[in-house]
Design brief:
Elements lengths: L8 E5 L4 H12 L3 E5 L3 H15 L3 E3 L9 H11 L6 E4 L14 H29 L2 E6 L14 H19 L5 E7 L2 E3 L6 H7 L7 E3 H14 L3 E3 L2 H12 L2 H11 L3
Parallel strand pairs: 1-2, 1-4, 2-3, 4-5, 5-6, 6-9, 7-8
Helix pairs in contact: 1-7, 3-4, 4-5
């Protein structure tokens, strides 16, 4: 469904599954039209039909791969060509790169940084001028409690990228106070999504107790409410509040030592 609407528009990246799809439902229920982007075009169109039928909203699809430089501009150019402006932005696209840093090809690292760091900044940069002009905007950057970790062994870019997203979001929120723009860093922990569908990842998390897991719908609902309140940060679930507090308040030397002892060789 691609009819231009006068209703507010929420743009969601990584919208084809998991937390991104849950956010699409959340904004549609709140009366927004939707712009969805991800790599899987056929799946996006199927989701668009479902969302339009369920919520009676207009749903615009722009299939792009955010690991390719220039993708953010192509997305905004496509929406502008349809007469759309972005009132709410959810930077959700992301994934992990298992393995030791030196063992993973650099091109995979570059693509990871492009999606989880560069695209978050670029999408926000492109959305802000219109939001400031209209004196209304919502930006939700999906980070992680991994952003509070002092160090990691394996997948080391993931906590580093998420720590950046948390600090970037809070700074962006402060810069835009008084402009009607709310910026929130959403920090979920283990969430049942396709993120954990890889064979090795499934093995690694299989032993985790059930109380450590949340569902995408709850994570998105909490994130939506936090952004509406203007919270700079939203940590999902009591267990994740404890994990984040430990990461923030444990002396760095002790925390790094503990990481080295606890993580597998």
């Amino acid at each position: 469904m691609d009819d231009t609407s006068t209703r507010r528009v929420a743009l969601v990246t990584g919208a084809s599954s998991g937390i991104g799809l849950a956010f699409a439902h959340e904004y549609a229920r709140a009366g927004y039209d939707l712009a969805l982007t991800a790599r899987r075009e056929a799946r996006l169109h199927a989701i668009a039909d479902e969302l339009a039928a369920t919520h009676g909203c207009a749903v615009h699809v722009v299939a792009e791969d955010l690991s390719v430089p220039g993708a953010s501009h192509r997305i905004y150019d496509a929406l502008t060509a349809r007469g759309l402006v972005v009132d709410a932005l959810v930077n959700n696209a992301g994934y992990g790169t298992p393995g030791r840093f030196h063992q993973v090809p650099w091109e995979r690292h570059r693509e990871f940084i492009e999606v989880l760091v560069t695209a978050v900044c670029e999408m926000s940069y492109l959305a802000l001028p219109g939001m400031r002009a209209r004196k209304f905007g919502r930006i939700i950057n999906v980070a992680s409690i991994a952003g509070f970790a002092p160090a990691a062994i394996g997948s080391i870019l993931y906590p580093a990228a998420k720590a950046f997203v948390i600090r970037f979001s809070q700074s962006l929120a402060l810069e835009n106070r008084g402009c009607g723009i709310h910026v929130t860093a959403l920090c979920p922990g283990f969430t049942r999504t396709e993120f954990h569908e890889g064979e090795k990842t499934r093995r690694d998390v299989a032993s985790l107790p059930k109380f450590m897991w949340m569902d995408a719908k709850t994570v998105a609902a909490q994130g939506f409410r936090a952004a509406e309140r203007g919270d700079l940060r939203c940590i999902n679930g009591w267990i994740n509040h404890i994990v984040a507090a430990i990461g923030q308040h444990t002396p760095n030397t002790l925390a790094v030592w503990g990481t080295r002892k606890l993580m597998k060789p």
